[in-house]
Write a structure and sequence with these properties.
Blueprint (H helix, E strand, L loop, with lengths): L4 H20 L26 H18 L2 E6 L5 H10 L2 H5 L7 H10 L27 H9 L5 E8 L6 H6 L13 E8 L9 H4 L2 H10 L3 E6 L3 H25 L5 E6 L9 E2 L2 E2 L19 H11 L3 H4 L7 H4 L42 E3 L1 H15 L4 E5 L17 E2 L11 E2 L4 E3 L3 H13 L3 E7 L7 H17 L8 E6 L17 H6 L6 E4 L4 H12 L5 E5 L5 E3 L3 H10 L1 E3 L11 E6 L1 H17 L5 E6 L17 H8 L5 E5 L3 H8 L8 E4 L10 H7 L4 H11 L5 H21 L4 H4 L20
Parallel strand pairs: 1-2, 2-3, 3-5, 4-5, 9-12, 9-13, 10-11, 13-14, 14-16, 15-16, 19-20, 19-21, 21-22
Antiparallel strand pairs: 6-7, 8-17, 18-20
Amino acid sequence: MTPDLDAVDAWWRAANYLSAGQIYLTGNPLFSRPLEPRDIKARQLGHWGTTPGLTFLQAHAMRAIVARGIDMLFVAGPGHGGPAMLAGSWLDGSYSERHPEVTRDARGMAELFRQFSFPGGVPSHAAAPTPGSIHEGGELGYSLAHATGAAFDNPELTVLCVVGDGEAETGALATSWHSHRFLRPERDGMVLPVLHLNGYRIAAPTILGRMPKHEIAALFAGFGWNPIFVEGDDPAKMHSGMAAAMDTCLDAHARIRRTGTGRPPMIVLRSPKGWTGPREVDGDPVEGTFRAHQVPLDVPREDGPQLRQLEDWLRGYRPDELFPDGRPSDLVLSLVPEGDRRLGATPHADGGRLTRPLDLPPAEAAALDISAPGAVTDSATKVLGHWLADVIRRNPRTFRLFGPDETASNRLDAVFDASPRYAPGRVEETDTDLAPDGRVMEVLSEHLCEGWLEGYLLTGRHGLFNSYEAFIPIVASMATQHVKWMREAKETGWRAPIPSLNWLLSSHVWRQDHNGFTHQDPGFLDHLAAKGAEMVRLYLPPDANTLLAVAEQVLASTDRANCIVAGKQPEPQWLSLDAARAHLGSGFGIWDWAADDPDPQVVIAAAGDVPTLEALAAVDLLRREAPDLRLRFVNVVDLMALQPPDLNPDGAPDAAFDAAFGTDIPVIFAFHGYPGLVHELAYRRAAHARLHVHGYGEKGTTTTPFEMVAMNGLDRFTLALDAADRAGHPAPRLRAVCADLRDRQHAHSRETGTDLPEIRDWSWPAAPLPTGPGGDDDDA
């Protein structure tokens, strides 16, 4: 039975009352006596302006859920819609189920009010402690991308996504209007966007808020939507109009699901900012202006006209009718759906409840057969692509690969054997690896790829985002928001773990010599490391088999952000799969086949595929040209393992770190990124004072692969000479060899545009190298 509009209006008034109460009150929630200064918060925080529109839409969403028996997820895009989301979940009972101390009665209402934007309480925006929410409103622009990600592979779900007109001015949101073209009705859910035009940002009018209706209609028709307008300020007429619009949209969804065709509907809701709040304060208009954005009425903690105006405003909702005994009235509760269909209780907003582990194929089928270190040359990401293809085959409804048109460029094109790219329109005869049922999601917007993936993960599915390393910082702020969400979600105690957020960064800084300086930036590692080892892992696999071992681990993990940096160019391969798994399990380790003197004079360490190549070439040089120099070689795959256990519970014990790196000998560390990150992670280790890190020094251009490492001091000659110098070894023959090769390499690159063959084609020696004292270095 469809709830009548009297119930819709009663619920809306109740939610508005609760929302305003959260902003202003610490006690006396139902006026058992006239308001007094002691009832008023010392700091009045929150955002009223967007709240009545959000509560209005929640009410009409519930009417549709009850009438049609559908599952719906509510995504609140406007930045600080927390009062509305909290009020809605308290009214439907889901808040009290998660937070038993906030009961659904007068005592609990007082606690709901007190805790809002209050020390030890909850934030002013929808966040992880808010039942029914997957969307953190502190940063604008991602609501529609999140909503679309939630709809992927959720054919029975309707996602109602509210887009504020301020949010609609962001680049990420503007791109997101294309997302509907990536939804396939028979496989995916439906997204119903509601563009909420209340006219203002914080202090100025919005672009869309000042656009005439015919231009808005033309704009969204051009995006492929069928816009339906609901406009006005009279509650009775607006309820009637919104109910009709919602029914029209959901009927259209049913036809699209049935036929697979049709223009998707959207709603444009135009209502006053701060609707139902104070119309005027101290002679200035408030409702319908920018003044309603945050706290429309500044109420001092003293008796006076503002206190009386606040009381009149709140009593205008008729709380005695809405909460006759301190609890929501029967009329209010008649609008609330049952069980998991409540907006605050839907499992789609607590995606860990729906998560099923991936069926991961054995990596052995894709692994390279390594007879000896360096004996095989291959592309690490190409090898991974074959394994990912099998992941897609085994998980046809719970795994997707996302990327900004770089899947083939990053050598992952073997995935197209399992699934093509998704075609957002017609497929031409000249297209390749493109089809309407593809599971490889490509669009040239990192924001959109990230938002889709986050929405997909937050609702319980799995994925991987592949990108060029230099351009992933475009989503750095989104990554921050998601990591913070996961941290807060873990602290709630009631949200189930969700699949990890995984990035694969290829076409990285050391192999962007052809594209030049703008494509050379490893800084995403620094950005993520600052979020803490509890939430973040940074992996720098040196070869294909280690990349496979890392991929196995991260795709099985939960509640983490995992960043993998791996090259796509053919390079020497070092470890068998078993050795790679053991190496990953330790985080770092001595490669005894390269150099493992029990009493080394110097340690050469590396993290990253190109740094490993150059460091091993440096070891080769040293063992040939200074064979009496005692060496140890250490490789790092899990960068966060450099942190000690008191900073990272999974960090290597001091004893293991000291056994690898020593405590009083120099360590020459070849690092993929900015050198400061290694120092930041290892600063509390005994070896830190003798740690000498070579990495990216913000020097780049269009050049050759070797010249790129050379200009940043990461090349084999610089590493070998630094090792000799730190160990106090004169090594004149080494210096002569390095000087000769450097000069010839530089001249060769300038003449031919390529690296010297003996550098470009260097390989790890197949024959045993001379070791220890008694070698043939006449100058030692």
